[in-house]
Specification:
It is a single chain. The termini are far apart. The protein is an alpha/beta fold and 159 residues long. It is globular. Helix 4 packs across helix 5. The protein has a 4-stranded mixed beta sheet. A two-stranded parallel ribbon has the order 5-6. A hairpin with a 2-residue loop joins strand 1 and strand 2. The protein has 6 helices and 6 strands. 35% of the residues lie in helices and 18% in strands.
Amino acid sequence: MPFQQLTYEFGTLLVAWEKEHIVYLDFGLNEERARTYLQEETDDGELPKAWRMAFDRYAGGDRQALDTLPCQLRVTPFAEQVLHALRTVPFGQTISYGELARMIGKPKAARAVGGALNRNPIALIYPCHRVIGATGKLTGFASGIAHKEALLAHEIGEN
């Protein structure tokens, strides 16, 4: 399975794909986390040009740049429901775990929503960085709060 790293002001991305779908996207090169999602051996590859251009456009502030990238989620049905709802949160805006739980019709499932987001295999495209604590505090980002902070700053034009 091919992968490629892309570096931007907001962080270094690791993108892995299978056939014509992105199956993994995370920050940095956390091999242990990547192995959790990627059963096959991975090796350096060349990201399809259109996909690379989409990531570059996102880095340039294009709000819809990642909307059409083909992805294949390998998650539970609950996590898939959470992640699909998450994609409706607009670029540069945030939502709380509780609000996201209410969006999927499970208002008491904020902790379960957080668990699903922690296991999000395709970060950025499924923008879990846009989910914050009920008090507005930046919490719970598998790639680290610094990445979450950088992405949110990027999306509101602060970097």
